Amino acid sequence: MTTPRKPTPRKTSATASRRSPRKTTKKKSTHSTTMSVWLRNVLAIVIIVLFSTTFYYFFIRPYAYRWKPCYGLKAYGICVPCCYEVHGIDISHYQGDIDWVRLTQSRLTDFPIEFVFMKATEGGDHGDDTFARNFSEAGKHGFIRGAYHFFSPNTDPLKQADFFIRTVKLAPGDLPPVLDVEVTGKKTVQELQQNIKRWLDTVEAYYGVKPILYTSYKFKTRYLNDSIFDAYPYWIAHYYVDSVKYEGKWHFWQHTDVGSVPGIEEDVDLNVFNGPLEELKKMMIK
Predict the structure, then answer these.
(1) Is 90 among the catalytic positions?
(2) 278: closest CA among 145, 100, 114?
(3) If pLDDT is split at 50, 70 and 90, which confidence band does 3 have?
(4) N or C end: fewer C-beta atoms under 10 angstroms in the chain?
(5) Using CA of residue 36, residue 39, residue 45, residue 48, what is the dihedral sign?
(6) Are residues 152 and 162 in contact, defined by beta-carbon separation less than 8 angstroms?
(7) Under DSSP, is residue 103 helix (H, G, I), strand (E, B) or coil?
């Protein structure tokens, strides 16, 4: 007898139901992968934008002025600020050995260097090892000269003042002593101001002339925004701008730290005096 063929079993609903979740899982997995790629791309774009913005703000924007076109007023490798007739530099051991004879060649240009400030001391016991020679050579070569002290907030201000006085012998024809204030030393504003005032008072009593106060535009407005400091000649450091934004009275403007002058191999700070040469000479020690 012929054995009858067994009917092929049909797929049960249970089998179909077992396979259905597998298809759903695959769809979910594909959707999840697409979402992951999308999120990864968005995050990458956000990170790139944030990095680019931060890099520009901190590393490009402050120095963008260097690459601006200069229309006519160019000297010493930079765009010279308009409408100032008295120019000068400030130096320290960072500038190395200076050829003072070559430096006098600046007098043959449209922007002759008239004055030179030199670092003399820092803190209570650190003297600049180039000061004595530079101060002497500046006088020999006819530059109006001045000396500055770098203030250390964590050192007794009277000790610092005494160290400066013992180091710097100013003579008639020299500019008043300068106090360079750039750091707070984690002092409160009140403590910092009190210590600065003690140095200024001590030095003024010895030399008989009000010292010049040097600091940056931001530092002055944040930490020395008090009327007692407005009584001192102000030397402002404000780089890569067309003009000084400070609204108060100022005498000197340090407008760049990348000047190139004859006789000095390293970059040097360039300054202008806010007035004619006759006014600068009135500031000299009598």
Answers:
(1) yes
(2) 114
(3) very low
(4) N
(5) negative
(6) no
(7) helix
Three-state DSSP class for 80?
A: coil
Q: What secondary structure letter does DSSP report for 36?
A: H
Q: Which of 90, 114, 174, 269 is catalytic?
A: 90
Residues 6+ apart with CB under 8 A from 137: 98, 100
> d(Cα 262, Cα 195) in Å, to the nearest integer?
38
Q: What is the pLDDT of residues 247-267, one digit of tens each?
A: 889 999 999 999 999 999 999
Residue 150, both tokens: 């770098």
| Other C-beta atoms lying within 10 Å of the C-beta of residue 275 | 15
Q: Which residues are 252's β-sheet partners?
A: 235, 273
Q: Which single residue is written with the structure tokens 């930490």?
A: 223
Asked if 177 and 164 touch (Cβ cutoff 8 Å), the reply is yes
Geometric angle at alpha carbon 146, from 63 and 130, rounded to 5°: 80
- What predicted TM-score, i.e. pTM, was given to this entire model? 0.79
The greatest distance separating any two alpha carbons of the chain, rounded to the nearest whole angstrom, comes to: 141
Query: Tokens 């002058």 belong to which residue?
Result: 261
Q: Which residues pair with 78 in a beta bridge?
A: 75
Interatomic CA distance for residues 77 and 257, integer angstroms: 11
Q: Which of 85, 182, 265, 266 is catalytic?
A: 182
Verify whether residue 122 is a known catalytic residue: no
Distance CA 264, CA 77 (A): 13
